[in-house]
TrEMBL record:
Any one GO cellular component localisation term in the record: nucleoplasm
Top-rank taxon: Eukaryota
Family the entry assigns: Belongs to the peptidase M28 family. M28B subfamily.
UniProt keyword Cytoplasm, yes or no: no
InterPro entries named in the record: PA_dom_sf, Peptidase_M28B, TFR-like_dimer_dom_sf
TM helices/strands, residue ranges: 125-145
Keyword Cell membrane: no
Protein name: N-acetylated alpha-linked acidic dipeptidase like 2
Species in which this protein is naturally found: Moschus moschiferus (Siberian musk deer)
Keywords: Membrane, Transmembrane, Transmembrane helix
Length: 795
């Protein structure tokens, strides 16, 4: 709603008052050198112009009138145009009031007598002209010297432009990131995670970052047992380790750490001997088909990782009656360059945080629940080579140059004995948190998150890549801060611990400071696993930030005509952004380099953590140019969010995303579509009427900008549902992967409805989505009402 919609009382007294103000404004014109450059005076003048236009449109305003019917028709047509396009800014600085005065047929009810001639008029005009010249030159000199003597660090950071961002980012070099990465990898070989955290703190402090803290939490970890798990074929008595090697002392010594860490954290312990049943990817349709053919009670499922969240698939298997799971990755789902047939991996069955304190922080005195395992299933990750041995498959499985997926024949029976032994114990998880206090809005936080190595887990080399990138950006940023500059909003740098066990460090910190973060966090920028491949840049962003990310991708492409197609999506991420997205509704961005095959293949393969030697960062990015690109892209987004007076979020894109998520759905209800349409209308009004501060003088007031930003930063909170299937995001704006556009909870409910012939789950999901859309529409409408009431109150 802007000034154009503000109503003014319709009295002749006000008309006289406005005319008086107009005359006084004209009388001040000669001294414009000191006043017209003042924003407040210009804003007052523009307010006056808009108020006068509204007075002209009032039916009771009789101070001015048009004599000819032709001009009356012209005025009516102008009013009609304005009503059809209320968001169009005025193109004339003088406004319609001035244009009407310039019409040849324009007259007033009163007339002025012609000024009497005066022989001294020329002398007076000459004096006025000389005075204006003197004032003009004086104003220039005063402005020049005051600007020259003004220190550069006094300039508001809100006026920083793209050139300043580039000056900060140009100091980031690939060679520096490479050196930092190698130092971290060497540090990992000799230190545990506590020492690594201390070294990161020391390095950040040496770079000049303020108030760097180590935040510790005592949490329940599920760790490998003293001996590795095993799988034994009952028919032959052959015993195999998870990597497919025969059980022997020699094999155990050859890769003891890899074997010990080939396990599912928080799985049930024990021994189970049963028939193995191939459930493929384990979706509802697969299980429905298998249940018709076999008795699955207490059987062992042979399950492929991918396509759906692991926790969701395990919940289906548990409900169906299975007792154990052999989990593997089909080589056909991996890029050809990834030869991981003999590699085992680790997974975590923890949805997030310390399992002993679900929903509340693990601080001293907190009640601890006894939750050594989070599922009744015995879950064991195994290599593809062991799967091939279980199903007696020949080594050469290629067909016509393609890849033949692993599959257990339905007419063959395999009985195996699986043994799982893990231990649970309380360990300390450490986060490193450093603050750069903002200049204008220190109580608004842009969080930048990486992660570091956690003891008893693989974590590969990705943690070193992540930590090297965040350190490189801190170094570049602090070089500028030491010269007197600061961002408008505070930037909080976090290196999380316990990521491999279910994002424990970020969850506990988020739960610990939940009340503060709910109110103050503006955005979360994730630097988790920045380089997974080298063929394609994949960007994940909240709908409100996709436009900003697309702009950065195009800007950082050296040759626009050869830029690859922008690959941006709002999809689930397996990283520490989880808590901020699903519990706080914080807009999020992450840039990652990946392989094309990985993006085209099944999603959720990144839930598997392979050994450090399985993924070699320096082979994928030998010169660390990809690391430099990720650092600069992420850094530019961080700087723009931290410095722009109005947050660079797009309200309308959220409404469009909602409408797109309802397209093509089988059971769209009229209520859902109607609500989505109203949400779009409210978002359009909000974006056009309130997100144009440069066109409305009232918007430039700090209180209005603050109100606007408060609304923008909380837009996504309405889309957090209370109940979501295990492994699914509670924030329904995020899809399962980049290939699906529908709401994930509706897709799951529809599949559940088809398999169980019951629509209760579907109705619950529809209700969750409907309530979320309605809450968002009410939120935007309330924001519009607040701005309208402020304008009415001031008028």
């Amino acid at each position: 709603m802007g000034e154009n919609e503000a109503s003014l009382p319709n009295t002749a007294l006000q008309g006289k008052k406005m005319a008086y103000q107009k005359v006084n404004a004209d009388q001040r014109a000669p001294g414009h050198s000191q006043y017209l450059d003042n924003d407040d005076l210009q804003a007052t003048a523009l307010d006056l112009e808009w108020d006068m236009e509204k007075e002209l449109e009032e039916p009771g305003f009789d101070q001015f009138q048009l004599n000819s019917a032709e001009n009356q028709n012209l005025e009516n047509s102008e009013a009609a145009d304005l009503s059809l396009d209320p968001i169009q800014p005025a193109t004339s600085p003088k406004g319609r009031f001035q244009r009407l005065q310039e019409e040849s047929d324009y007259v007033t009810h009163y007339t002025r007598s012609a000024p009497k001639s005066n022989p001294c008029n020329f002398c007076r005009l000459l004096k006025i002209f000389c005075m204006a010249i003197i004032l003009f030159i004086s104003g220039i000199l005063i402005g020049y010297y005051s600007h020259k003597n003004c220190p550069s660090n006094a300039t508001s950071s809100g006026t920083l432009d793209l050139q300043l961002y580039q000056e900060i980012l140009k100091t980031i070099e690939a060679e520096d990131i490479k050196k930092s990465f190698r130092n971290l990898v060497q540090l990992y070989k000799s230190e545990d995670d506590t020492e690594i955290s201390k070294k990161i703190k020391t390095q950040w402090t040496s770079l000049g970052l303020e108030d760097v803290q180590l935040v510790n939490y005592s949490v329940l970890l599920n760790l490998p047992g003293l001996s590795p798990s095993s799988v034994t074929l009952s028919s032959s008595g052959q015993c195999f380790h998870p990597n497919g090697q025969p059980c022997s002392e020699e094999a155990r010594k050859w890769s003891s750490q890899d074997l010990l860490h080939s396990y599912a954290a928080y799985s049930a312990n024990g021994i189970l001997e049963a028939e193995v049943i191939d459930v493929s990817y384990g979706n509802a349709e697969d299980l429905k088909r298998i249940k018709k053919m076999k008795n699955v009670t207490n059987r062992i499922a042979l399950l492929k990782l991918g396509k759906l969240p692991l926790l969701y698939k395990l919940s289906l298997l548990e409900k169906t009656g299975f007792g154990g799971v052999l989990l593997y990755i089909d080589p056909c789902d991996l890029p050809k360059t990834a030869n991981l047939s003999y590699n085992t991996f680790m997974v975590s069955l923890n949805p997030g945080g310390d399992p002993s304190t679900p929903g509340y922080p693990s601080i001293d005195g907190s009640f601890r629940q006894n939750r050594s395992n989070l599922t009744s299933l015995l879950v064991q990750p195994i290599s593809a080579s062991l799967v091939a041995k279980l199903i007696s498959l020949p080594k050469d499985r290629t067909t016509n140059g393609g890849c033949s997926p692993l599959e257990l024949p339905n007419n063959e029976e395999r009985i195996v004995n699986m043994k799982i032994q893990t231990v649970t114990k309380f360990e300390t998880v450490t986060n490193v948190v450093g603050y750069l206090k903002g200049l204008t809005f220190p109580d608004r936080y842009v969080i930048v998150g990486s992660h570091h190595h956690t003891a008893h887990s693989y974590n590969r080399q990705e943690w070193a890549s992540s930590t090297a990138i965040i350190t490189a950006f801190i170094r570049a940023l602090m070089l500028r801060v030491k010269r007197g500059w600061r961002p408008d909003r505070s930037i909080v740098f976090c290196s999380w611990g316990g990521t491999a066990f279910g994002n424990i460090g970020s969850y506990e910190w988020g739960e610990d400071f939940r009340k503060v973060l709910q109110r103050n966090v503006v955005a979360y920028i994730s630097l988790h696993s920045p380089v997974k491949g080298n063929s394609s840049l994949h960007s994940v962003a909240s709908p409100s930030l996709q436009q900003l990310v697309a702009e950065k991708n195009k800007f950082n492409c050296p040759r626009r005509d050869q830029c690859p197609k922008t690959n941006i999506s709002s999809e689930q991420m397996q990283d520490d952004a989880d808590y901020f997205v699903n519990h706080l509704g914080v807009p999020t961005v992450r840039f990652t380099y990946e392989d094309i095959k990985t993006l085209e293949g099944p999603s959720f393969l990144s839930e598997a953590l392979f050994p450090k030697h399985a993924t070699k960062i320096e082979e994928m990015d030998p010169f660390f140019n990809l690391h430099e690109t990720i650092t600069k892209l992420s850094g530019e987004v961080i700087l723009q969010i931290a410095n722009e007076p109005v947050l660079p979020f797009n309200a309308l894109d959220i409404a469009l995303e909602v409408q797109n998520s309802l397209k093509g759905y089988q059971t769209n209800t009229p209520q859902l579509l109607a609500l989505a349409s109203r949400l779009r209308e409210s978002a359009e009004l909000f974006q056009s009427d309130e997100m144009r501060p440069a066109n409305d003088p009232k918007e430039r007031a700090p209180i209005r900008v603050r109100m606007l930003n408060d609304i923008l930063q909380d837009m996504e909170k309405s889309f957090i549902v209370q109940h979501a299937p295990p492994g699914f995001y509670r924030n329904i704006l995020y899809h399962l992967d980049g290939k699906t556009s529908q709401f994930s909870i509706l897709l799951e409910a529809w599949e559940h409805c088809k398999s169980l012939a019951s629509n209760e789950t579907l109705e619950e999901a529809l209700s969750e989505v409907l309530n979320s859309i309605n809450a968002a529409q009410v939120y935007f409408k309330a924001g519009l009402d607040v701005f309208e009431s402020v304008l009415v109150g001031k008028n």
